[in-house]
Amino acid sequence: MNFNVLKEIIKSEVRFNEQMKKYTTFQIGGIADAFVFPEDLIELKKIILFSKKESISYFVIGNGSNILVKDEGIRGIVISLKKVCNKLELNNNELIVGSGLKLNDVLTFTYKNNFSGLEFLIGIPGTIGGAIKMNAGIREKSISEIIKEIYLMDENGNIISLPKDKVCFGYRQTFLPYNSIILETKLELQPSNKKEIKKKMEFFLNKKKETQPLNKKSAGCVFKNPIEESAGYLIDKAGLKGTKIGDAMVSLQHANFIVNENQAKAKDVLELIEFIKTKVKKQFNINLELEIKIIG
Ligand code: EPU
To answer: What residues contact 189, with CB distance under 8 A and at least 6 apart?
Structure first.
């Protein structure tokens, strides 16, 4: 496929053969054929229709904080929504928020405007779109609890809105129409005050700082927590902290994190994942399931 055609179809920025390691918090990943930054919804629709017509796949990337891109890279188009989906509109206690915005920037906005509800998401280096798609959260709470409505572009480029009761949410996943793209989400917040909001943010952030390797290259928790026990606990009890394959290592701080110690390859991480799964299965007879998405 000649991706140069894209330049003739859209005015927005297109980058070819883009190194995905620049766009993931793991700082791992091969080359994507094309990487686009649509500037409006008409451009986004053109990209989607082009992909459909040419049978090319597309992948929407947020902040790349919950994915592992393979060393072979991504065949097709990677779409960033940061130039197109950045609405931030507060109407009473409802916030309409664009998918391309970073969670922490949205938190700063709600703090400044004295609204509470998002504090538990502090420290997650993702975008709103990624957080909605993955139903991000902590042990006790997920973002789905405060969602009122999701606005999508479907695979034909039509804009549709789905009220909460039309969406099925799972543990770290949100079920949406095939190939649809989350544009904006309406969230329900509560009026509060800066002192209270700050207290909550500090509580959640301090907990994460104590237990998670936030300043290392990683993709957050690698595995979902099985019903029986926390994945981090199981991997730790299997004695796997510090286990290394290439430059990929089971974090010494939190066993459900794999950290890129230097120049890790996706292959190293994938081998380490298999190693962990085998050990945990053998010791506890529990099958660990991936939380992070493998792309490519
Ligand atoms: N534990 C260990 N060793 C470890 C890690 C944890 O023994 O290396 C034990 C802890 O002592 C604790 C239990 O396991 O008793 C649970 O640990 P923690 O409180 O750290 O919670 P978690 O279940 O490991 C979940 C989410 C995190 C989220 C935290 C915040 C999942 C898979 N993980 O972690 O989410 O930040 O709660 O409370 O749901 C993510 O989704 O990427 C993520 C990091």
So the answer is: 93, 94, 95, 110, 115, 116, 117, 118, 146
Alpha helices in 96-184, H assignment, sequence order: 103-112, 128-133
Per-residue b or e along 27-40, where b marks 16 or more CB atoms closer than 10 Å to that residue's CB: bbbbbbbbbbbbee
Amino acid at 290: L
Buried b vs exposed e over 108-130: b needs ≥16 C-beta within 10 Å? ebbbeeebbbbbbbbbbbbbbbb
Return the DSSP state at 224: P
Please tell me the distance between residue 158's alpha carbon and the centre of ligand 1 in angstroms: 39
CA of 230 to the centre of ligand 1 (A): 6
Cα–Cα dist 20/29, whole Å = 5
| Structure tokens, 97 | 């928020």
CA distance 144 to 167: 10
Q: Quick one: residue 92, left, alpha or beta (phi over 0 = left, psi -120 to 50 = alpha)?
A: left
Helix axes of 194-211 and 103-112: crossing angle, nearest 10 degrees: 150
Which atom of ligand 1 lies nearest, measured to the CA of 251?
8
78 by Cβ neighbours in 10 Å (0-12 / 13-18 / 19+) ranks as buried
Atom of ligand 1 nearest to the CA of 219: 42
Per residue in 229-269, pLDDT (tens digit) is 999 999 999 999 999 999 999 999 999 999 999 999 999 99
Beta strand 181-188 with 147-153: parallel, antiparallel or unpaired? antiparallel
**Average pLDDT score over residue span 170-177:** 95
Average pLDDT over residues 123-137: 96
Using DSSP bridges, classify how beta strands 74-80 and 31-37 pair: parallel, antiparallel or unpaired.
parallel
Whole-number Å distance between alpha carbons of 86 and 96: 10
Distance CA 166, CA 162 (A): 6
pTM (predicted TM-score): 0.96
